[in-house]
Amino acid sequence: MYRWKKLKKEDQQKIEQFLEDYKALKPTRYSYADIKRMTGNFSDKLGQGGYGTVYKGKLSNEVSVAVKVLNNTKGDGEDFINEVGTIGQIHHVNVVRLVGYCADGFRRVLVYEFLPNHSLEKFTSSKNDANLLGLEKLHDIALGIAKGIEYLPQGCEQRILHFDIKPHNILLDHNFNPKISDFGQAKLCSKEQSAVSMTAARGTMGYIAPEVFSRNFGKVSYKSDVYSFGMVLLEMVGGMKNIIHIGAQDNSEAYFPEWIYNKLEKGEDVTIEIENEDDSLIARKLMIAGLWCIQWYPVDRPSMKVVIQMLEAEEIPPMPRNPFGSEYGTGVVKKIATVSVGGSGLTSISEESEE
User: Fold this and answer.
1) Do 271 and 250 share a domain, yes or no?
2) What pTM was estimated for this model as a whole?
3) Does 44 participate in catalysis according to the annotation?
4) Looking at 62, 88, 114, which one is the last position of a domain?
């Protein structure tokens, strides 16, 4: 009887713990006093950017959270509405979970699950850190990101287009599983819409699809996120930014994706750490998939479903056609890429009405 009662008590505790954790599955509205208590009066700062400041906090059940305090002086609240309105309805293993939010006067705060291994940017900005993960793990991370992106326009009641896929917005959990974050630039549209209307470019320089800048390349759609993912893939494997220095003597520069394409076409190795033949095959697969994704015209890019098939297949995908020839009008895109490295803002665009 004693043992039976003890087991029943443990079962009850499990249920109570589950119910406590389950409450966090649905975003909760917190007061600013709750936020201060949660963060220990903002004592543990994790990072800061143009969007605001992120602090580490704890819920009542000692579950760690990341608390993003948005800048009061920036924007008209659209980023906050986008975050709560989009990420609040997403439940996917490769999308960060919104635990709660605070809208107390002019104070706007977002509370996320805490992911201890920071963002993918830490591992793409340093070759040493990237080598710590290894190419097999980078492949798993790439596949997880792809599955998260594929879910966004398909898995919810409305299509969700992220428009800011980049290493900084890919967070890693304790097992280095990737989770897409930061939906401040996202747009929602109905499932029936194949293209979205935009009056200004949005996203981060260097990862923005050409059609977001100029409608001459095609209409803006979920294929714009495919392009951004392709740039992330190339950066993951190559560990370089868009523009690289290739000549020590004349300080000449090259557009990184074009440099990769030329290397692969000639059968040459790209300058990354390769330990064995399997690593070489993984690197080649990731780079070719990335090149398929960054075709200038949306119609020439594969869907994320096809990209996932490329990444999961044992064989290496075929090389895409060369998108860097003058017949594809890449002068405009190379100009965008050059601005992407040193540019500080996005240029407004005028567009024709879209169906």
Assistant:
1) yes
2) 0.80
3) no
4) 114
